[in-house]
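hiii so my PI (J.) wants the whole complex modelled not just the main chain, which honestly fair. so below is everything: two entries, each one labled with what it is. i double checked the lines twice but i was tired so who knows lol
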Amino acid sequence: MGIAFNRFYRLRPLASALLCLPGILFCFWYAWISYSSFDRYRRMVDKDVELTLEAFHIQLFDSLRRDLRWMSMPSPPSSSKIKSFSFHVSTENLEKLYEGAELEAARPYVKAGLETNGGIQEIELRLRGQRHWHNIGRQKSLKARLPKGELVDGYRVFNLINDPAPIVVGEQIILDLARKNGVLTPGSSFARVLINGADLGVFRYETQPDESLLRSNRLVPGSIYSGNLPGSAKTSELWKDVSRWKKSAWRIDEEKDEFDNLEKLLGNIRSMSTRQFARFARTEIDLEAFATFDALDVAFGGDQHDFRQNHKLHFDPYRGRWEPVAWNFRGFKHDPMFNLVENPVLLRLKMIPGYLSLRNRILYDLLVGDCSVPSVRARGKKILKKLAPELAADRFFDAYKLLPRIDRFHRQMVRPMDLHRTALVFESEMTTYRIRHAFLMREIKKNPMWIRVNEGQIGQGEEVETSFDLVVDGRTGVRLSGFRVSFAPECQDTSWQVYRRGSPVTEPSTSDHATLVRPMKIFNAVRLIERDDANSKRGEVRTVNVPAAHRFVLKSTCAPKNIETDGVHLAMGSRILSRPARDEVLRRIPKKVLDVDDVPKFVVGETSPVQEDLLSPAPETVRLGPGTLEVPTTLVFEEHYTVEVAPGTRFKMGKDASLIFLGRAIFKGSKTEPIVIGGTGGKPWGGIALQGPDTEGSSLTHVIARDGTAPRYRMIPYPGMINIHDTRDIAIAHCRFGGNTLSDDVVHTAYVKKLRIDHTEIADASGDAFDLEFTSSSLTNLSVKRAGDDGLDLMGAKTLISDSVFVDCSGNGISAGEESAVRILDTLVAGSKVGVLAKNASEVTLMASLLYQNKTGIRVYSKTNRYTGNSRIASDVIFIVGSKKEVKRDKASKGALALGRVQRRLPADGTLDHLAKNVLGLDGWEDLDRFIKIVMNGGRP
Amino acid sequence: MKASLPKHPSVGFIAVCLTYCLVVSFFLWGLSTPDLDRIWTLHHLLRTGELDRLSPEDKEILSSAIVRHESLARVLLDGAEIGIESAHLDGWIATPCVTLLRTSQSGHFKSISMDVQTPQDLIPFSIVVKGDGWKEKLEVKKHGRFEIELPKPPDAPEIIEVILKGSDFEADPSVLGIKMTFEEKR
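here's the output for the full assembly
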């Protein structure tokens, strides 16, 4: 030891240089990594930033900390709770993939393989995202695309994103809440990604808003549009030019490049008056969905859905309505205002009296429920607990916003993360959320109702008129309940009544209180002011609430001493009383407001109209008939109308004329006086539509409708002569339909709950007789004769069919597709191409039914792998008689049949008696052939 | 025979020792937490209430950083000229020691106002307000509104501490019961 030290003590320069080298090289190595990391970031964000000692220290610290963490990091958990994607990419393709980082657009897809349970699935990958965190490090954000017809977990296209948000779970919390509260939301979660066996850590997994999103939500394919402007474009272009939008889903291939409905929406936003836009919003916008989306942005301080970007809109063809798709919900911010950013759709909605009350009601419900501070905290902690073991084993776990916001450069620097920082950031964001939550609750809960009794009374002696204003100043409107008026002691038995615009709103009263004769809501107004922080993303203007005065007149036989109003706070649902208006409130009442028929220009100073509820007009009843009614052109009954059609009414419809009901329709025909709907002069008329939730409870009884085509109304593609869409509790009984032309179906339903059809006949259908999509129904005593395609075509439907007859259908007698669940009892299907078909994960149960002389008795197959799971047909005893092929199924459908006993002869006497005698009216089964022949011959022997 | 050490170490020896001292210093410096990183952490620890009082070292780091980076104080105050860095809910303080920050532009704020609603069993107590080279003390004997005047702000941003002394205070706004606001000159 002494000798060694001695030698060391006498070390020569050359030897010492060799000894120093490793240390020096080690220092240079880390110095170089730190410098190049800084330089790479600087080149992407701001070339002019200089390297200071402080900046270098940060980079060195990060490099060392990252490496130390790598050394002590645990392995990924063996039983992972998150998805895992393992890709195989050739070296050449990997290079090509990463070269895409340099490109702003048109990044190339490269071929790759994805490990699945069944082996290696062909897939394509490309880089995505323009911001530096998407591709500056090893974790690069990817977009994956499977070949057409292939799906992984129901999706063809999905994204794996390197999300730099330090809260980690923030966006996931909000998206989960959006999904839970009925907003159409693409699937999202977390996933571990490996490329060629190299673990790249945890990514955010996000599915693309395309057809898969619609089908997984049990919606028919419709249009989805995406609005994001490139930096070079002017902001107004997004709202004027449909070519700035991308279409990622469509109903049929022919509509792939059609943007008509979007063009109409953008045009309406630009050019409709408030009254027109309110009507449009009532009937063609899913206001609850938009209000919920808006409420979530308000609750969490979201600022992503601005004038330029992050807009995704879905148009459902059968609902005929627009709804937002939840996308890019960054939040957990707070400024003392409700909407941190606006956009033209939101501005238009806010200018409608009533919209903000709806939005704030939903917001209040969220704030006391799913979005309460403890609920959000619990939700976040649950996700973090699940993710923690994965993040602890993520080499590339990083985030931005890990330095104070002294400038954009420091703020957006991506730095290593760990669980301790994650927990700290989560708590800090929850603190912000708690502050915001308290602010929003405080604002919403304020009593908005004030009263100003105007000076000077008119009249004297017998009648006195006192005008007063109810001033609404707050975040929500009021549903008025009643008035309380007091008089001087000497005014005994004073009679009084309250009027608005010349019409009484209360009954005459001699007590101190009177309730309203019909519901009335009054609202505050909204004014556009200049934004302090205006820019092209946030726009130039934002909205603020201003008081609105609603004038009433009290007529009484004595001058009142005091007037008070009670009502219901529209957000909280609690009872509130008016208070005398303060000067500060009265001063802010705008002198000029838009008229309800003006078109807003969205300039500073514009104030929304002061109006009662444009979103819920007062209900009215219309009575039609009896007698003959000539209908030369399409008649549309708005949603606040209940239409009652008297027995014996005869509609003589003009060419292509239709009856469109947006509210309840009651067709009260009878056996002796049916209601008849037909064309004029042999020309085909249009059709009938019951469209939208306000048609709930409609019924058609003893109605005969023949020789129509299909209605044309708005942009809804009505496939049937009679269409029932987006409603519930509909009853059709003792009706006869048929003879349609130029339409696919006689009766088409979509998104209907509790449909009941009983004792109804369809004959001579050009295509399907009944086509039920996403409908729950009970069908009894149906008779379908001579259908050009299917007798009953079901998609995503839950149906019970009993005591029914399907004869001579060119397609399937009964077709159950797309995860339908069907029970068929006491039913005959005869003379059709296929008796009963089950496809795409549908379940059919057959009981006491007969399939007679169909080309194929039963068929089962899987048409698309979009619906995982086999179809199944089950029966205890099934009669399949006179078929060329009794059972046909594809390879995938082995095991799809649980048929019990298959009987190949007609039932013996005493078997299926109910079907023979009660349903078909036969004396015995020997009469069946004659019965069918008569049906096929159009009712003639 | 043992060889004896020369009087002086060789140049090579000195070079190796010096080099590795520098290497170790380099890495020790590299592993030390950068000021801005520490301030980021302190900011979050203070606003969540996990930390209620800055240590002298942290106070020094923050003081020097807010001088070095002009915008740092305003960033920590979310754009305001004076504000509470520690945890609070709408001014109701959540920790017995409260860290405030003010910029050199905050001259129009003349005082800190305290609305004391502390539970009676914790009264009396004293409030000490310490800034850069100044200190004020307030004796609280009953509920009410109290004001502590602020001296003219210095040329650089300043850290002010408000410390409650005398009772066993919990870090809970409902126990502390003090709402702090800043009064502007009229």
